[in-house]
Amino acid sequence: MRRISNILRKMEKKDLKIDTTKAVNEAQLNGEPQAPSQTMLDAFFRIHDYLVAHSTMPIRRQLMDEINWNDRLIAIKGGRGAGKTDFLLTRIKEIETEWRNMPVPLTKRGKPSKRKSLRDVRPCLYVSMNDFYFTQHSLLDLASEFARKGGKYLFLDQLFKYPNWSRELKRCYGKYKHLHIIFCATPVMPIDEDNHELERIVHTYNLRGFSFREYLNLQTGLKLPSFTLEEIMQRHASISREICDRVQPLKYFQAYLDHGYYPSYLESTSFEAELLKTMNSQLEVDVLIIKEIDVACLHKLRRLLYILMQEAPCALNISNISEEIGLSRATTMNYVKYLKDSRLINLLYPEHKTFPMKPTKVYMHNTNVAKMDFTRELTPMDLYETYFYTAIHGAHKVNATERSAMFIVDNQYYFDVKENVSVRDTIRPTAVANLEFGRGNQMPLWLLGFLY
Q1: Whether 398 and 274 share a structural domain
Q2: Which pLDDT score is estimated for 27?
Q3: Portion of the chain with pLDDT greater than 70, in percent
Q4: Do residue 239 and residue 316 come from a single domain?
Q5: pLDDT score of 18
Q6: pLDDT number for residue 28
Q7: In this structure, what are the phi and psi dihedrals at residue 288, rounded to the nearest 5 degrees?
Q8: Which range of residues forms the domain containing residue 118?
Q9: DSSP E strands, 111-179
Q10: Which residue, 23, 132, 224, 319, could crosslink 39 as a Cys pair with Cβ 3.0–4.6 Å?
């Protein structure tokens, strides 16, 4: 959203009207808000067109092809900085391009029909719900007028800022059967099983930060494919050799651990400063506002995060932390859960256990966040364990194990993580950081970044 805000500021400098509230000054009768006028939709489309024209997604995210776009209510869930807005705008570009290139239907006499142009029938509309228009008008008003004008795909951003958003989405879903609604969701927004109004009608997809594969493709211009975990486990030696014939992954691996997870590294002159803003927004907006926590508790929440940053990967000593930040054990544990939900930390639990049980270990959500504590020197193994967890847990279940192995994946695969290659082959699958080609049970750690 930072880059979108910059685009909107450029629009203001170019004297492009973006104050959509002015377009509805006369849209009320008897003090009751009415459906958007054509002028109102024009104002939204003006912003829509500018943002779509100036949006860029340097690589095609794999998630784009995993979504069933025929579903009528789709949530794109992702942490701040993962690129949700650009993801929506890229999908809009694809739909509008396909619409323009559709063959013109023929009349009964075999002549081309006079199909309306894109200016007359707009298939897509992107709207940010933080527009002041929604202080007096409803989402249902907008959806009604857009559907009446022939619209098919309504893309909604910043939806958490709209009151009763889930109830309104359900009303739109039930009323406009031909309308597809795609919206961005923060990780702490209640979706699916946590939301009775949207249960069974919303299809949720997770947009994560760049995988190592995506980062490598960005840096090299290659189009390296992804692999399933089973493929990597069975064929890691041949797969790694095929990739290394085209590029040297280890030359890029450390840079990825440093700054490659968040797309903002592509456009920010100071990646650390931008990531700090993102982390603070996760605390101040995703946790405080959405979870309705008193702002007076923000300092304690920040203190909790800093304590974990200083130690992670580490065991979670709730008693000591609670005493240090001045909160009860139950409240501290809830705050830990909020940090996990906002994708600032990860929690590693024993098999068959989850919150509110105590986790075995705490990790930072990714290595970029882990390196934001400049007062400590992370060991290589701290980073490698964190990378392993981040790379695997998006699509697989990762737990601690009572055996000597470090992790168990999907309740069946025992994994170790090591920095260097063992002279003798290992008994169980082992992800090795300083390994270029796989051999035996030892596979390159970087290769696990090819799962998406």
Answers
A1: yes
A2: 39
A3: 89
A4: yes
A5: 46
A6: 39
A7: -65, -50
A8: 2-206
A9: 124-128, 153-157
A10: 23
